[in-house]
Amino acid sequence: MSKYFSEERIAQFWVFQLSGWTGLSIVSYFSLNLWYDQPEAVYLGHNILQSVLGVIVSWPLRYIYRRVWNDALVLRIVYISIAVVIFAGLWSVLRLAVFQWMTGETGIWSDFGGWLFPSIFIFMCWTALYHGFKYYRLVGEEHDALLRMESARNFEAARAARAESSTREAQLEMLRYQLKPHFLFNTMNAIQSLVATKRNERAIEMINALSDFLRYSLYSDTKQFVTVKDELAAIKMYLLIEQARFGERLSVEMNASEEARDQLLPSMLLQPLVENAIKYAISKSEKGGALMIEAYCDATHLNIDVIDSGAEVSARGAAGASGVGLSNIRQRLEACYEDDYSFDLHRTKEGGVRAAVRIPLNHSETMS
């Protein structure tokens, strides 16, 4: 890209260089050759040749001005003034010598000042146009850079908005699930059964679990990312409620390494996976089943597996992989991590389903 811009700028310089000196030649023809009644070819040839000399003599000024561009302003003015006088003087000497050679006129060196001062004016105009165009181009480049930065900010803002939107959708989906009549009925019926059998401590534990689970869902509404240990604590509350329904039919095991417990992940990411495992595996089996949640780290990523023992029916498919909950997980992961994540579901040797999530470590550092 830089090579393209360099070639483009060189082309632009020569377009302006040739156009400017050609324009000077035309102006000189009408203001000097015709005004002083010098239509002869020799004078016209000198007019053209002095513009050619102007192209050649002024060309090094571009490199001089680029060299002093970053110097202090006063120093730049001094260097530019000296360069203008020197190169204007050189051009004056050359065009006066050529004029004398082409026309055969003599005794014109005494009028050197009359050739020098217009030359200084012309080279001052050349310098002003060069700096004006360069400043114009820099302003344009800065404007383009600001637009690119703004576009990048808008992209990041849109990405964050998608992540937040997906998070809130998951939270609303979770609350809708909690408020489903059959869920509340099963939960309250289980509590009533515990009270009726005078298992008050267990009933209180159930009520507290339901209360804490609802409180967590409302609290996490303000946090896009939570630690693994907080997420597992919320899942434990959810499973306490489900265990009241399934009793000994549901066994749960949670394992998280010390490093994994302090890592961050999108809030309520695991609840749909646990819900799917219970819905499509545990509840489909008369004997119930086991649910295992593991969290561990490798060199660059956090890995979380939700594994169930499988159902006694064969038509389970991929654990409801096309469901709304799992689709929401994929959308959230993509919004949060772009391509730096994986989410897979596949059967285990024992006939269950393993849902595996892999996301970068310490994601809070890249999102803050």
Comma- or semicolon-separated keywords:
single chain; 368 residues; alpha+beta; Heat Shock Protein 90; 2 domains; five-stranded mixed sheet; two-stranded antiparallel sheet; 11 helices; 7 strands; rod-shaped; disordered C terminus
In words, what does this structure look like?
Strands 2-4-5-7-6 form a five-stranded mixed β-sheet. The chain folds into two domains: 2-152, no CATH class; 180-367, 2-Layer Sandwich (Heat Shock Protein 90). It has eleven helices and seven strands. The longest helix is centred in the middle third of the chain and has 68 residues, at 112-179. By secondary structure, it is of the alpha+beta class. The two termini are 31 Å apart. β6 (342-347) and β7 form a beta hairpin. 67% of the residues lie in helices and 12% in strands.
